[in-house]
Amino acid sequence: MVRKGRFLSWIFLTLLGILVIGPRLTRASMIGQSAPELTNEVWINSAPLRLADLRGRVILLEFWTYG
Questions:
Q1: How big is the chain by its Cα radius of gyration, in Å?
Q2: pTM above 0.85, yes or no
Q3: What residue spans define the domains of the chain?
Q4: SS3 letters across the chain
Q5: How many Å from the N-terminal Cα to the C-terminal Cα in the chain?
Q6: Which one of 4, 40, 42, 54 has the largest count of C-beta atoms within 10 Å of its C-beta?
Q7: How far apart are CA 33 and CA 29, in angstroms?
Q8: What is the pLDDT of residues 10-50, one digit of tens each?
Q9: Which residues fall within 8 angstroms of residue 37, CB to CB, at 6 or more apart?
């Protein structure tokens, strides 16, 4: 019986922590903000682009690095 009480207390405290800390973690998200400007120095298969040039278009941005 004591184990069940501890388990329920643990569940309650975990959920309380998620409710308290969760919103603070999402504030750092960039959802709803403007994208940062592209600052690449090397462009392959195109001239350097700005975000203003791409406004209103659907784009696929693929980037990678050597590991």
A1: 23
A2: no
A3: 1-28
A4: CHHHHHHHHHHHHHHHHHHHHHHHHHCCCCCCCCCCCCCCCCCCCCCCCCHHHHCCCCCCCCCCCCC
A5: 53
A6: 54
A7: 9
A8: 888 888 877 777 666 655 667 778 888 878 788 888 888 88
A9: 50, 51
Residue 65 corresponds to which amino acid? Answer: T
Using 50, 70 and 90 to split pLDDT, how confident is the model at 66? confident
Count how many Cα atoms sit within 13 Å of the Cα of residue 47 in the half-sphere of its side chain: 3
- Nearest CA among 18, 23, 57, 63 for reference residue 40: 63
Quote the tokens at residue 14: 């975990």
Distance of CA 28 to the CA centre of its chain: 8
Amino acid at 29: S
